[in-house]
Write a structure and sequence with these properties.
By secondary structure, this protein is mainly alpha-helical. The chain is built from four helices and two strands, in the order αααββα. It has helices spanning 3-15, 21-39, 56-72, 97-103, and strands spanning 80-83, 86-89. Strands 1-2 form a two-stranded antiparallel sheet. α1 runs parallel beside α3 and α2 packs across α3 (56-72). The chain is globular, with a radius of gyration of 16 Å.
C-alpha cells in the first residue's frame, strides 16, 4: 500500500468514523476502478490497477471520488432531494461529471 493510498483511507476513516476497514477498502477499490476505466478507455491498453503509481494528484481524485460514492450511498437513483430547506442535486450518472472530466483523456482529430 502506497503512502498516498494510506493517507486517502485515513482521511475517509476520520470523516466517516462508522465505516469499517472493509467498507473503506471497498470504496477505495470502486474509486480506483473508476479512475482506471476513465483514464484508460481502451480495454486492450488498461494497466493492472496494482501497477498504477498513485501520486498526489491521483490520490486527491480518488479521495474526491470516494466522497462522491459515500455521498450517493443509499440514493443512487435520486437526482434531486429537498428537506428542511436543504437540497441535494445529483447528475443523472453514477459519477459526478466534473470528476470524470478531470481525468478523461482528451484527444482531437488530426487535420
Amino acid at each position: 500500500m502506497s503512502q498516498y493510498e494510506s493517507a486517502v483511507k485515513a482521511q475517509i476513516r476520520a470523516k466517516y468514523e462508522y465505516l469499517t476497514d472493509d467498507d473503506i477498502d471497498t470504496c477505495y477499490n470502486m474509486a480506483l476502478h473508476d479512475f482506471v476505466r476513465l483514464s484508460y478507455p481502451s480495454e486492450s491498453k488498461r494497466p493492472d490497477p496494482q501497477s498504477i503509481d498513485i501520486d498526489f494528484m491521483t490520490s486527491q481524485w480518488l479521495y474526491a471520488r470516494m466522497l462522491d460514492i459515500l455521498d450517493r450511498a443509499g440514493g443512487t437513483n435520486v437526482t434531486a432531494y429537498r428537506e428542511n430547506g436543504v437540497s441535494w442535486t445529483y447528475a443523472n450518472s453514477y459519477i459526478d461529471p466534473t470528476l470524470a472530466l478531470q481525468i478523461m483523456p482528451k484527444g482531437r482529430v488530426p487535420r
